[in-house]
């Protein structure tokens, strides 16, 4: 949770991430590409898994190492827009 007690929000799909919902931290630069100890963002597990199914570690390190870049990827943007309409606890199958 954030410091003010609010429920965190996934910066990719915009849905809240309440306690107990599958979630994980995404290293904006992959650990294997120099991102160990670098910035991370809290995401729904389904959003995080979709990133790693879509992009290689090299692509993530070189071009998609920010929330804005991830949201700008055409395939990911379509997924994030679609999943935004699902309940926060939705964890469906990863394409």
From TrEMBL:
GO molecular function, one term: endonuclease activity
Keywords annotated in UniProt: Endonuclease, Hydrolase, Nuclease
Protein name (record): HNH endonuclease
Organism (species): Paracoccus maritimus
